[in-house]
Every structure is written in structure tokens, then in C-alpha cells.
Write a structure and sequence with these properties.
Layout (H helix, E strand, L loop, with lengths): L3 E4 L3 H13 L3 E7 L6 H4 L3 E6 L10 H11 L3 E3 L9 H9 L3 E2 L4 H8 L1 H10 L7 E2 L6 H11 L3 E5 L8 E4 L5 H16 L4 E5 L4 E11 L3 E13 L2 E7 L6 H17 L3 E11 L9 E7 L6 H8 L3 H9 L16 E8 L1 E2 L5 E2 L2 E2 L2 E3 L5 E4 L6 E2 L6 E9 L2 H13 L2 E3 L5 H9 L1 H4 L7 H4 L1 H4 L7 H11 L6 H4 L9 E8 L2 E9 L4 E6 L2 E8 L2 E4 L2 E2 L3 E4 L2 E4 L5 E5 L2 H6 L7 E3 L4 E6 L6 E2 L4 E7 L2 E6 L4 E6 L6 E2 L4 E5 L3 H4 L1
Parallel strand pairs: 1-2, 1-4, 2-3, 4-5
Antiparallel strand pairs: 6-9, 7-8, 7-9, 10-11, 10-13, 11-12, 12-15, 13-14, 15-22, 16-17, 18-21, 19-23, 20-22, 24-25, 24-32, 25-26, 26-27, 27-28, 28-29, 30-31, 31-32, 33-40, 34-36, 34-39, 35-38, 36-37, 38-40
Bound molecules: adenosine-5'-diphosphate (2 copies) and magnesium ion (MG).
Length: 649
């Protein structure tokens, strides 16, 4: 076994790897960027090396710098985590050339699976079923349209170099093909520097079922399947293992196909074979097709760990160190059921916009596994994936594991940034999902129901006011301290854009009457806790001028100081601002240009998506304040329109 490894990643996965390494007596070296100087993953490792600027290209993607850090610290091997350099064969070559071990597959295996078209050809040869379609080299638009006609609509156009759902377009009818091809190509060119695409049959009521494989370079075993059908825009939201409705026969067929795929490329280490499955007629041995292979540890690997009892990172280290596979296929079994929810800092009502902010508070219930890369006080920075944590639950049955997930989400407390916690909870209560009737269209179909936000009730407002005024504390009363004069206090709170004055009348140590906008709430201290109109008050946290009531997904209230506001400036209606942190991809606006409402002024790229910034009204561009390629914070001014009569007046 290695004495010391370097972890070429950040966040939760770096911490996850460090945890197992520590348990195995292997020392760890972290690498970090400027933005991550105080990050949790640095604290989780024995040593740390600064490798550059905050943007990934200046740090976590600098292969040579990372290899140098490994050599300097005496690490013998490099674990790449996922994302960043994990599937970069050039990096693997460089690691090996430096005399170090890459904890993962060979560069050749990564290359073989790197492009979706080549991988499909390879898999066809190995006898693994692939999605019917065209994955040849002729990239002529006419030819591809002809191929789509032959396949039959609907079809899916995919970037051969794709990943993370990018460069993918669903085309429902021939008339839409040319336009979709154009946009898939340009997205692929921008994201991967490769505009080539393939066209395949769009599977109706598709399910995404993937098989975890593990190879030693010659032989491979599989560790069963995961169902990742709950997706939004082709990105996974909640994963589970095993797949609902899976039969022993189909599992055997899928597992065998996955092992065949891994052995066909002499795969070493942890990998995932992703299949698209036709869910319209139940799971069948002739109803699954190879989609792609992910040649790395997957984000959702914990659900497999939960049902198999295997520590996949431990296996990675052992196999990379030259040991044989720890278990044979017949020794692997499934125990119970597991779920993983991906908790993100994102603004769900605003269309799942990635968010940033400082986590004023972060806590998970002890009954779940929470893999997180951030702690209370840490920032979700604009530079990286805004995932806050993965919440994993396990139980003897699917129902129990899902009930535990609902409880885990309800007990998760995040303050300081908006999150998708409410969305995850709504999903876990969704009837179809609860029944195990999943497909990749589930979220899209019921999006409105799933993203409905919980409004703050009178009791929540009352609790926020009591907390911020320090009136949940009863100790001062007991000491007879004259804190209660005046006995009536008030505070101005803002929640979801609405402001309200809340008045609290103290009526002895254990009783308060809280007057909110539309009535009053009685707060009573009884049995060691506060009751609001007879109901047990949820947890609440005050940090600076932010009050978070942990009801539903967490309700944020801001305390408004009327004096401070009177002194502040008002907003400028002429400015087009970045709605979220991101990278300015393109700027179309030119000073002096006349624009109409709806014209594209700029494109902002943030977390796997491009967002067009449109002119909100007709007008003339006064000033362009950014250039393409600039990283901006939320609220950064991008373009200013000339003031109109009304706006100026
Ligand atoms: P998974 O199946 O594990 O979700 P994806 O292909 O969606 O795999 O992406 C794997 C990981 O790579 C993600 O979890 C993310 O951390 C990283 N990743 C993928 N695409 C991007 C991107 N465009 N920007 C930043 N990180 C990305
Ligand atoms: P990426 O590399 O971006 O992860 P994949 O090829 O793995 O791309 O596809 C991502 C998702 O797109 C799948 O999980 C599935 O939801 C959907 N998808 C892919 N191929 C098909 C298909 N042929 N029919 C229907 N849905 C598909
Ligand atoms: Mg995929």
C-alpha cells in the first residue's frame, strides 16, 4: 500500500477520499486554489500545496503543477476524484511518466471510452447492446438529417465529446433538425472544442440505469445497478440503488453486459457503465442499451457502498497499489436499499439558478450519511460546482430508506444561501417516485408542483421576530433584570420581497403575544420548548441580520434597519446585471446601439448552462461594462442603457 497519496480535487470528493485513506493509514496531500485556501478539504488532509488561482484552469486543471506537488511532497500516487482531470488521458500519461501511480484506469481505457461514437463502435464489437443510431464520421448536415429520418423521430443529437448533459438536443420532428444540430454543435465546440455529434433514437419513457464495475486490468466484477432517472436537464438529482422493479434476470443481463464492456478495454479501477432503459414496458433483458462509460468514481457511488458494504475508495487504492480485487462476483450481495440526494446552492423558483453565498449555518441530522465539502462559515464560491452536500440514507426496504431520506432532508439545516432542499423534499413526497415509477421525464412533467415554494406562515414570522429580538431566551427574566422595559418590542422583517412590522408583547417569562400582519400568534414556553399557537416551534438561527427558520426548506428573513436603508441608494433600472455568478461568454451589445426589448445583450455561462441576458425594454446602449471571458459576481453591472425620460425624471 502507498504511504502517501495526493488528492487532485477539492470539495466533498477530496474529503471523501481522504477519509478512507486515513482509515487505511495512508497519508494525504491536498492541493488548493486561492479561493480554497481555508477550505474543508485542506483541513481534511495531512499536508496541502497551493497550486494557483481560483479559476479551475489556473489550479485544479494544471496537471504539471499538480504532478510537481506530488513529487515535492513525496506522494506515490494521485487520486483524481471526479470532474477536473479525472478523465483526461494526457494527464494520466504525464502522471505515469513522472514515475507516479494514477489511481484509476489506464490512459488507453479512458481514450477508448472518451468519445461517445468510438465507444459505441467498441461496445457493439464486444456484444454490448447500444442505442440504435448513427455514430459514424460523416458530419454533413444533410447526411445526419437523413440518418435521423432512417432512425425515426424523436431523435437525440449528442456531442461525441459530451458530458454533463452538454451538447445534447432532443428533436421531435424533421423540421426542427437543422436548427437543433446547429445549436448542439456550437455548444459542443464551446464546451469541448469538438463539434462532432452522433444521432440516436430517443428512448420513450427512458430510465437511466447504470452499473458500477470494478476491474483489475484483466477481470472485472460488477457491484449492481443504480437508478439515476430523476434528472433535470439531463443532470442527476436523486439516485438510488437497487433500481425499482429490477428482476434477477435483468440484473444478471445488465451486470454481464457491463462486465463485458469493462473487460473489453482491460479496465482497471472503478467505472460506471451507463445504460438507457426503455421503461414503457417494464424492465426486460432486451430493453437496455449502452449509453456511455464514466471512467472514474461517480458522484453517486455512496448508494452502491450503502447496499454492498464495500468502500469503493478503498478498492481503488488497493487495486492501484497492485492488489487483486478484494471480492469475487459471487461474494457480492445487495443489502437493503439506498438513496442519495444532491443538495445544491441554487435558486429553484428562478429556474434553478446556481447561487453563491456564505453558509451562515450548516448541519445535517446524524441519522444520515452526509458527504459535504463545506462547513458553517464557508463560502459557496462562483468558481466551482455549487453542490453543498450529498445526503445518503439506507434502509432494509425502499420504503424505509425513502422515509429516512424525507426525515434527513427535514432535519437538514442550511442558512445563508438559497438551496434546492424544498425541491428535494417535494420529490421525495412525489407519488410516482414513492411508488418507484421513475423515468427521466418525471421531474419535467411535474415541475410546477415540485417547485412550489412554501410560504412563510404567521408562526414562522413570529418565531423569526422572537429570535431576532432575543425573546426566546428566558434567563434574563428569572434574574429580574430589567430587560423587559419596554415590554413591547418591534422589528421590521423582510421575507420573499415583502416587508412587515412585527410587534411582540411580553407577558411574563413564558408567554409572548406576537402581532404579525394578519393576526396574532401566541408563544408559550412549555415542557422545555416554545409552542406557537400550540405547535412545537421549529429550530431557528440568527446570524447577523439574517434569521433562518428551519421549516420546510428553511425560511430566510432579513432584519431591516430603517435608518440604514434611508441612507442607501436606490436601484438603477437602466442596468443589466448578472443574475448569478458566472463567466461572461459573449457580449453582443455595443455602445450606441439601439436595442429592442428581448434582444440578446450578452450570454452568461454558469454551472453547465448558458443564460441569455435580454434587454428588458427598448432603448439605446449607453455603456458596455464587461468583456467576454470575464468572471463576474451576482449583481455585477454588465450593460447600461441610456436613461429614458421616465427613468431619468
Ligand atoms: P455524474 O454522472 O457523476 O453526475 P457528470 O458527467 O454529470 O457525471 O459529471 C461528473 C462530474 O463532473 C460532476 O459531478 C461535476 O462535478 C463535474 N462536471 C461535469 N460537467 C461540469 C461542468 N460543466 N462544470 C463543472 N463541473 C462539471
Ligand atoms: P452525458 O455525457 O452528458 O452524461 P449521456 O449520454 O450519459 O450524456 O446522457 C445523459 C442523459 O440524457 C441520460 O441520463 C438520459 O437521461 C438522457 N439520454 C441519453 N441518451 C438518451 C436516449 N437515447 N434516449 C432518451 N434519453 C437519453
Ligand atoms: Mg452520462
Amino acid at each position: 500500500m502507498f504511504d502517501k497519496i495526493l488528492i487532485a480535487n477539492r470539495g466533498e470528493i477530496a474529503i471523501r477520499v481522504a477519509k478512507t485513506a486515513r482509515a487505511m493509514g495512508v497519508r494525504t496531500v491536498a492541493v488548493y486554489s486561492d479561493a480554497d485556501a481555508g477550505a474543508a478539504h485542506v483541513a481534511a488532509c495531512d499536508e496541502a500545496v497551493h497550486i494557483g488561482g481560483s479559476a479551475p484552469a489556473e489550479s485544479y486543471l494544471r496537471g504539471e503543477r499538480i504532478i510537481q506537488a506530488a513529487l515535492d511532497t513525496g506522494a506515490q500516487a494521485i487520486h483524481p476524484g471526479y470532474g477536473f482531470l479525472s478523465e483526461n488521458p494526457g494527464f494520466v500519461d504525464a502522471v505515469v511518466a513522472a514515475g507516479l501511480v494514477f489511481i484509476g484506469p489506464s490512459a488507453d481505457a479512458i481514450r477508448a471510452m472518451g468519445l461517445k461514437d468510438a465507444a459505441k463502435v467498441l461496445m457493439e464489437k464486444a456484444g454490448v447492446p447500444v442505442v440504435p443510431g448513427y455514430h459514424g464520421s460523416n458530419q454533413d448536415a444533410e447526411h445526419l438529417a437523413g440518418a435521423a429520418d432512417a432512425i425515426g423521430y424523436p431523435v437525440l443529437i449528442k456531442a461525441v465529446a459530451g458530458g454533463g448533459g452538454k451538447g445534447m438536443r432532443l428533436v421531435e420532428a424533421p423540421a426542427r433538425f437543422a436548427e437543433a444540430l446547429e445549436s448542439a454543435r456550437s455548444e459542443a465546440q464551446n464546451a469541448f472544442g469538438n463539434a462532432d455529434v452522433l444521432v440516436e433514437k430517443y428512448i420513450e419513457k427512458p430510465r437511466h440505469i447504470e452499473v458500477q464495475v470494478f476491474g483489475d486490468g484483466t477481470h472485472a466484477v460488477h457491484l449492481f445497478e443504480r437508478d439515476c432517472s430523476l434528472q433535470r436537464r439531463h443532470q442527476k438529482v436523486i439516485e438510488e440503488a437497487p433500481a425499482p422493479g429490477m428482476t434477477a434476470e435483468v440484473r444478471e443481463a445488465m451486470g454481464r453486459a457491463a462486465v463485458r464492456a469493462a473487460e473489453a478495454i482491460g479496465y482497471r479501477g472503478a467505472g460506471t457503465i451507463e445504460f438507457i432503459v426503455d421503461g414503457s414496458r417494464g424492465l426486460r433483458t432486451d430493453g437496455f442499451w449502452f449509453m456511455e462509460m464514466n471512467t472514474r468514481l461517480q458522484v453517486e457511488h455512496p448508494v452502491t457502498e450503502a447496499i454492498t458494504g464495500v468502500d469503493l475508495v478503498e478498492w481503488q487504492l488497493r487495486v492501484a497499489a497492485g492488489e487483486s480485487l478484494p471480492l469475487r462476483q459471487q461474494d457480492l450481495t445487495i443489502t437493503g436499499h439506498a438513496f442519495e440526494s444532491r443538495l445544491y446552492a441554487e435558486d429553484v423558483p428562478a429556474g434553478f439558478l446556481p447561487a453563491t453565498g456564505t453558509l451562515a449555518y450548516l448541519a445535517f441530522p446524524i441519522e444520515c450519511r452526509a458527504d459535504s465539502g463545506v462547513r458553517t462559515g464557508d463560502a459557496i464560491s462562483p468558481f466551482y460546482d455549487p453542490m453543498i452536500a450529498k445526503i445518503i440514507t439506507h434502509g432494509p426496504t425502499r420504503d424505509v430508506a425513502l422515509t429516512r431520506m424525507r426525515a434527513a432532508l427535514a432535519g437538514t439545516q442550511v442558512a445563508g444561501t438559497v438551496t434546492n432542499l424544498g425541491f428535494l423534499s417535494a420529490l421525495c413526497a412525489h407519488q410516482g417516485f414513492t411508488a418507484g415509477d421513475v423515468d427521466t421525464g418525471l421531474i419535467g412533467r411535474d415541475l410546477e408542483q415540485l417547485t412550489a415554494t412554501l410560504a412563510a406562515g404567521a408562526a414562522d414570522v413570529a418565531l423569526a421576530a422572537l429570535a431576532v429580538l432575543g425573546l426566546l431566551d428566558r434567563r434574563d427574566w428569572a434574574t429580574g433584570f430589567a430587560l423587559w422595559s419596554p415590554l413591547e418590542r418591534s422589528v421590521l422583517l423582510e421575507h420573499a420581497g415583502e416587508e412587515s412590522v412585527v410587534r411582540v408583547i411580553c407577558d411574563g417569562p413564558d408567554r409572548r403575544c406576537v402581532l404579525v400582519a394578519d393576526g396574532s400568534v401566541e408563544a408559550l414556553y412549555q415542557g422545555g420548548r416554545w409552542l406557537l399557537d400550540g405547535q412545537v416551534a421549529p429550530a431557528v438561527r440568527v446570524t447577523g441580520d439574517l434569521v433562518t427558520v428551519f421549516a420546510g426548506a428553511g425560511l430566510a428573513f432579513h432584519v431591516i434597519d430603517p435608518l440604514a436603508r434611508a441612507a442607501g441608494a436606490t436601484g438603477d433600472g437602466n442596468l443589466i446585471e448578472a443574475p448569478m455568478p458566472g463567466m461572461v461568454k459573449a457580449v453582443f451589445a455595443v455602445a450606441g446601439q439601439t436595442v429592442q426589448a428581448g434582444d440578446r445583450l450578452a450570454v452568461l455561462e454558469a454551472m453547465k448552462m448558458e443564460h441569455a441576458l435580454l434587454a428588458a425594454r427598448d432603448g439605446v446602449v449607453a455603456e458596455v461594462l464587461v468583456t467576454a471571458g470575464t468572471q463576474v459576481e451576482a449583481g455585477a453591472a454588465l450593460v447600461r442603457l441610456e436613461a429614458t425620460e421616465e427613468a431619468a425624471g
